[in-house]
Amino acid sequence: MDATRHGLPPGPLSCATCTWHRGEGAALACQFLAPPAGEAVRIGDGPGCAHHEPLPDCLDCGACCREAFDSVPVDPQAQARLPAEMVKVHSDGWVDMVRVPSPLGCGTRCAALRGGPPYTCVVYAQRADTCRDLEAGSEACLEARRRVGLTAWGPGWTPDGPLFRQD
Fold it and tell me: Which of 47, 131, 150 is nearest to 86 (CA)?
């Protein structure tokens, strides 16, 4: 499938401006077209396709803090920085961010998340390393966006996982 030729009219939206692209210049690859556990499909920069998605804006998204994940691990250094009421220590020693019921009624979200949209984090300066390490447009970001319905599932994927198994 040629991702550069089946979508949007010519204009400023190109493969290189899409959140799904990986690489630089002639070495661009499309992560959207990648099969589960497969490598991104090599493409050249061209007009953006029907799956073009601008880089996510964290304030408009908040997917990683919302219903996408059930737990945000907190290491000992982050636990020392964070307010005690934002950290939960489980009986088995697992430490993560406190979760509260989602206002959407579908799961939980981080207790530090406020608003919607725009979203803000009330412990942003002290946030857990797990949060610090998650970059906008990264695979973990895209996974969170898929789980909350902000980003499409690529070929071979469903919300329940791959349509087929790769051995």
Answer: 131
